[in-house]
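Schema walkthrough. Field components (list of strings):
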Amino acid sequence: MKKENSVRTESREHRMRKGGNKMENITRPYERLLRYTRYETASREGVEKSPSTDSQLVFARALAEELRAIGVGDAAVDENGYVYGSIPSNVPGWKGTTIALLAHMDVSAASPCENAHPRVEAYAGGDLPLGGGVVLRESDFPELSRYAGKSLVVTDGSTLLGADDKAGIAEIMTMAERLLRDDTLPRGDLRICFTPDEEIGSGAELLDLARLGADAAYTLDGEAFGGVEYETFNAADAKLRFFGVSVHPGSAKGVLRNAVLMAAEFIDALPRDQFPETTEGYEGYFFAEGLAGTVESAELHCLIRDHDAEKFAARKAFLQELAAKMNQKYGPGAVELTLTDSYYNMREKLLPAHQDLIDAAYAAVRAAGGQPFSLPVRGGTDGARLSFRGLPCPNLGTGGGNYHSRLEYACVEDMDRCVDMLVEIAAHYAKNQA
Ligand SMILES: [Zn+2]
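Field assembly_structure (string):
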């Protein structure tokens, strides 16, 4: 705790050095987060429009207005609900890498988000009762000990907080305000983009890269402050259809072919030590996510995930072999497998070509008083898709945790440090490139 205190003091002094008293009336990111949680912005799967929900559009318009009010004059919402804005460099004759900072406006539909009642708690350590019997337990989340002596934004336990990813938006907004208020902070050309529908996996699709006009980007969509993520899963969807032959069970012998049992047989052939609940770190998995069927036909939905490209390919081949074996056993056409790749590990696009993005983020975290760390993401990010679309885009922590849950929290002081980190990144890319 002592260490954290000294870190905080350093960070504040650092800020004073750089910004002086011009920073006095800057809205703090947690204050913005409290305001943003009033917008109910859950996205919805299976809707053929962007954004998938009108509530996101309401939030987008408010954010564009706020950006304009703090001096991002060109901030606007496009026809798909994306908010774009730019901050020109304040370095004369600047020629360097244009960096975009991205965060998503929607929240997960996994927990309720309506009528959130956020509050700020001075966290002394130990268990933190949120309300309605919901308790944030240190034994469940040992990382909480890191926040003892700091302040946490939490809800009353009836909804999620939406710090994923409104904390990211609040930090980018606060960075913009600081940079535009204090011209002694050097910066290259910067772009800001707030995206819809990240939680349903379509946030990166309609991002207009030409309009954004950036050379590289960061998503602010990670959890703890200091996290610099540049590895994601390779991901594919496997859809299996099993075709049975239905006859009266009384006269079924040698004729009936039960699609339900075929699906069960297929699931049973999957290695149990390679499921989400039995793997961690760099271990990939098969996830039997959904199953529906009758004797005549059954449908099984499986997810395939692996950080390693070769193992990823081997997993897909394994399912193809399984399906082929069942077709041998039950007759041609008994099983149909459709494999669709969803996204790939962004590391392939980031390293070694864009090592500087990682190095700059590490240096910025340290300058903001933190300790950078990188963990493989056991999922995807919008940045992974964007990296494959040509915009290299690692992901940075936003100072919160327990995303998608009623137990979600954001740390007030760490959100400040995330803003410090962004100001440092802006300064790094203010340097002219030869
Ligand atoms: Zn997120």
